[in-house]
Amino acid sequence: MENARKSALKERPKMDKDGAAERSPLRQQTLEDMLEVTGVRHRIFPSGSVENSRNVVMRGRFSFHNHGGLSVHCGHGVETRSLSSVAELPPGLSFNLLFRGSVDFSLGGRRHRLGARDLSPIECSGFALSRPEMMTRFTRSGAYVDKLNIFVQQSWLQQRCQSEAGRVQVQRLFARHAIPHFWAADAETESLARRLMALDAAQSFSEQLQQEQLAIELLSRCVDAFDAQLLAGDVRPAALPGASDFLLKQRVDEKLRDCRGLNEIATALGVSVSTLQRKFKAVYGTTVIDYVRRRRLEIARAALIMDGLSIGEAAYLAGYNHASNFVAAFKKAFQVTPAQLVRSHRRSRRFEPG
To answer: Domain spans of the chain?
Structure first.
């Protein structure tokens, strides 16, 4: 984490005599260090045949603030390379505030473009991930981008729910998985975003607190605007968990890699299989068996892209003895074969929004 902070400080842009940011280089290694701080698994695929972590991926002004489950990434400048950056995002909310330019990305097998709508002065967008999801960000050499991104993990929000009304709202926020919503920024949101965009890497503890305060204020406004979009569409949470069961999925996830079967998971959690099944169904509206099966496929999906596992290795990781059965289950779950998925996430030149 300290190395990433130092790298970010080295990349801080200098200011010219008019107060404008000079076009400082953001190198691939610095970008990877920034992402590593958040704990998000990621991999960058350059468009060329040779990968060089010292290559410049952007020139402009950029900053990154991480506050333990809440992160803010600001960037404004020119993308210097065509590449694809793949990340396995945890359950959470992602908000983008786009001042200028456009952003191409793929999420949950669907392709999107930010900046294609006439929303002044800032195009705001947000999506919720109720489960881990693969996202690919495509950059285009010569493209100009001026944006701010806030990502907050679902667990960060859940830990701050102190009332039933809060739990209801959080459930509603995550009712629709990986579906972007768009709206125009109001004056207060624009002001907060510009203040946060102007901040450099914090030098002192008090500066870190000021950054976190601004980030939370902006997050609050984005959450309210996003929730208003859901309410307008009459989105309702499928189920309301009790306070003690709110993090049940997270507890099951923690046991997946060490426990092969449902009996082992229940034992590790200190409950009977029947109790685990009953609670899980009541809270999430699905069986724990179906959830574990899909979650293992999601883990294998990430390993195919992030770790370069073969299809046979990924099949074993997901609990399948035969690769053909794994491929069939994978295609049913994600509407794409493992081989097609790997190829699609490595394309960076010919992106067309879906």
So the answer is: 2-232, 243-345
Q: Quickly tell me which residue has 């701010």 as its tokens.
A: 148
Query: What is the residue-wise DSSP string for 128-162?
Result: EESS-EEEEEEE-TT-EEEEEEEEEEHHHHHTT--
pTM for this prediction: 0.78
Q: What is the CATH class of 243-345?
A: mainly alpha
Give exposure, 176-204, as e/b (b: 16+ Cβ within 10 Å).
bebebbebebeeebbebbeebbebbbbee
Region of residue 314 (left: phi > 0; alpha: psi -120 to 50; beta: else): alpha
Give the per-residue pLDDT at 331: 93
Block residue for tokens 């060490």:
258
Q: For residues 102 and 92, what is the distance between their CA atoms, to the nearest angstrom?
A: 23
At 257, the pLDDT band (50, 70, 90 cuts) reads: confident
Mean pLDDT of 198-224: 87
Per the DSSP assignment, residues forming a β-bridge with 71 are 66, 151
